[in-house]
Amino acid sequence: MLSQTRPVVVMKFGGTSVAEQSGRRAIAKRVASTIEAGQAPVIVVSAMGRAGAPYATDTLLGLVGDLPENLRERDLLMATGEVISAVVCAHELRASGIAARAYTGAEAGIATEGAYGSSAIEEIHPGTLLAAVRSGIVPVIAGFQGVAKDGTLTTLGRGGSDTTACALGVALEADAVEIYTDVDGVMSTDPRTCDGVRVLERVRADELFQMARHGARIVHTPAAELALASGLAVRVKNTFTDHPGTEISNIAAYRPTEVATAVTHVDNVARVCVALSAPEGTPNHMAAQARVYRAMANAAVSLDMFTPAGDNLLFSVARDALDDACAVLDTLDLANEAMTDLAKVTLVGAGMHGVPGVMARMSEYLHDAGVTVLQTADSHTTISVLVPAKDALAAIRALHRGFELGEY
């Protein structure tokens, strides 16, 4: 029987964890261990398996194609995968002697702002879940979903179960949020890209956020943003091993000793060069730039790596947004040229802020690897380079080895 005074731990399990009986048994063991440790587990689950598995999100969507004409029904269909997982996992817990109950996102009190396909969580009403915990019941919540003010179901975007878990962690004032997957933790780069990749023992919340923003798929970007904003104690672990995983640290509690922590990448990027025209005497073509930015915003086209360059404006977009971006520019009667088959490679590290020479080292490593850099962008914790897609692997490997991020 769980006591209401026991500290809450939100435990999120990904699709590969819940897909097979062996994974669900591993979940039950972890939940039992959490209870034995004097904590109150609250479980969040993703849909079962990956594309091809019977109840995976992509498999469900395959039943109806893209369904572009009805986004409401698309969300309804996608959300069923998590509901199935919640019911099956709750059953597994009960079969292991643990009192458990499955909840949809709506039943868990998750209120969204109402956009289909990528809705944001506005607030959580945790009374139902807290009552379950006080009664000795382990809630098992369907991730990736919530309910809008008009009562319609909406989903949170791919990877949204992570966001469900972190949002519940804030609402329930949880001691910790544990995100379980089929890898041992946050990696120094995508292990499919180079040798020597290692599990990071500790990363700062701002580093995790930037890694997610720039292509790392270990944690959903809004979840990483929540961890950064709230100071949540988060750990990323493997369901199937005893590896300690990666601790996500509050930025006030941890200062990295090295300038770089990880390398991330985004494929299928395009760059657009726009010939600006502006009233005579307008400095730096700001009027034309403002027209472009406003028109893109109105068309919901997300721009990245935007750089004024004399009479031109350069920016990058996801390859599948290129046609929309060019259509917007055509309505503005601005000549433009696009370059495709590009990738963005990003060096992430909270330790680089204010340290001279980081870009110099990057340039040297990339030059030695024969990588062509088309454009750069930076922040306090990142430096990104836009490169031809054919150079992406060489760039990742050069930076990963050059900044000694792995185990060689």
Kindly summarize this structure in a few lines.
The protein is an alpha/beta fold and 408 residues long. 33% of the residues lie in helices and 25% in strands. The protein is built from twelve helices and 18 strands.
Textual characterization of the structure:
The chain has 408 residues and is of the alpha/beta class. Helix 6 (160-171) packs parallel to helix 8 (221-230), helix 7 runs antiparallel to helix 8 (221-230) and helix 11 crosses helix 12 (392-402). It folds into two domains: 8-253, Acetylglutamate kinase-like (Carbamate kinase, 3-Layer(aba) Sandwich), CATH 3.40.1160; 263-401, 2-Layer Sandwich (VC0802-like), CATH 3.30.2130.10. The relative contact order is 0.11. The radius of gyration is 23 Å and the shape is globular. It has helices at residues 15-18, 21-36, 57-62, 71-95, 127-134, 160-171, 205-213, 221-230, 286-298, 322-331, 358-368, 392-402, and strands at 8-13, 40-45, 100-103, 110-112, 121-124, 138-142, 145-147, 153-155, 176-181, 202-204, 234-238, 246-249, 262-275, 304-309, 312-318, 336-348, 375-378, 382-388.
